[in-house]
What we know:
Strand order of the largest sheet: 1-2-3-4-5-8-9-12
Strand content: 15-25%
Number of strands: 12
CATH topology: TIM Barrel
CATH class: Alpha Beta
Mean pLDDT: 97
Radius of gyration: 17 Å
Amino acid sequence: MANIAVQLYTLRELLEQDFAGTLRKVAGAGYQAVELHTYGGLTPQALRSLLDELGFQAVSAHVALARIENELDVVIEEAKTIGFGYIVCPWLPPERRQTKEDFEALTAVLAQASKKVAEAGLVLAYHNHDFEFERFDGMFVLDLLYANTDPSLVQAELDLYWIHRAGQDPVEYVNKYAGRLDLLHMKDASKDDGSFAEVGQGVLDWEKIIPSAKDAGVKWYIVEQDVCKGDPLESIQTSLAFLKDRV
């Protein structure tokens, strides 16, 4: 179970209502590790105390690009206090992904920031959606981004749902970034309408994905469901039940 985490964005509405209480329910659902997207209004010290109290390991955190650009030193100190080892750039605002030059600028930011992150004993990663599957110079943006950053400094946090949504093969991408893929976002797609589904309940081929992920050296399988049709707590339990004897 130590290698399965949950991205807390899945539970964002519940966390906004009761941050500590929702974390307790996540622990009760069987999770022992989390990926953060917010600190819930707590100081890093208070958040670390709460996570320790509940027996959680904070694996990683999604950190807005603007913070990586403008307050990286603060983010690094937060990571050290809270205890997460991976700082993940999760999203590129629409106005910053209109041209090839926009993505080249992102690559430069990540390349520079990754050096300082590594010096602090941490790791920088980039998480994809589907907009990175636009082509420039015959290559997808996502591949250009990884090709033009140091594999030892910038990790791939691949999101299987968004790779599938872009019409690409998740297994192919897991294999392509073997050795650079410590973090993998586990999501499924409904066979009915392509919407988000609990892991194992949709159309992704987990019988191929999971062995490929193991071969690729994935360290953390991170459950995330951007939108849950039912109770998010039940959704993350369903995904955990599917994964816990398979990864």
